[in-house]
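INFO batch 0412 | record 1 of 1 | parsing
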Amino acid sequence: MQLDFPEPSADALAHSERLSIEVRAAIAANNGWISFADYMNTVLHAPGLGYYSAGARKFGAAGDFVTAPEISSLFSQCIAGQCAQVLNQLGGGDILEPGAGTGIMAADIMLELERLDALPARYLILEPSADLRARQAETIARMIPHLQTRVSWLDRSPLQPVRGVLLANEVLDALPVSRFIMRNGVPHELGVAWSGEDFNYTARPAGRQLAAGVATILHQTGTQLPEGFTSELCLQLPAWLQTASDWLKEGVALIFDYGFTRREYYLPERQSGTLRCYFRHRAHENPFLWPGLQDITAWVDFSYLAESALAAGFDVTGFTTQANFLLASGIDQRVADLAADGRAQVAMAAGLRQLLLPGEMGEAVKVISLGRGGVAPPTAMSGRDLRSRL
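INFO prediction complete | emitting tokens
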């Protein structure tokens, strides 16, 4: 297949080959086959070699993709206003952000909370990647040097659970997923094998956990998936929610991510699932291209997320789209306040389209609020509550 992608440098290709050798060794040690979830976990997170743990630039114009905090500071300002509501309910507290990207969301949130006189006691960034921690620290030092002492990094779960706000923006779509294909009405798991020249998908009968997950999908949606239907299921989601519950003693978790409800996710016409790869702002569907040099994501099943959150001890206190959340947070008023500065308003316009329009992130990204300890959700979650769709 011809790909209109820029060729990686010789050093980058050598790096990818080192990771490829590690994956091939794992396949050989497991009788010629590993699960796709294991493959995805290795190419994204292998120490020193995986996409997120190595040194290539990932975010922004020079990277592979752009997230909402890089598109416009208004995104983070709106979130900050909602965080202030939660912190005020609690009489203070902390913010915990797992997977903070470049650190720009943390910096913009802290600046807005300072303006609102609602700074948290601590802004904790849970980041296992040493490379990303260094980039985040540079952003914090550059943007909010006077608030640096309130920001600290964790490479593992906090020793004590926090009271306050847990923020996860585009974190769950990077969790490794299991892939399956329907054959004669039965799910088969798509794993990864090595042909001698390339990695490729190889199907086996689904194991008990994956088969049970697909059976739940079929039962709850009432659909029959057609022959060859291919999709994914994030079997790690319940464990992530249980860990998040351990992190947050009292407060609200706000989770932003690309996703669908279960009925939307597993529509029969969505024949190839949601798995996507990103290299230099080009999206494609080949996860075996240049391991370690590209991002691999899958959209989130928010129905499964809500079920897992309830099982982990959270209350599901709201569910809406990113556009609804931002509008209910007053993003339109913030834009109006820029009217006196014509240049600033023009500069914001393109970013706002990406954040709000249905064909961009506005409808594709969903927001769910999860409560602990009876804390009320922030007001932006009540603008258009879609929990009945979960």
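INFO post-check: DSSP finds 14 helices and 16 strands in the chain.
INFO record closed
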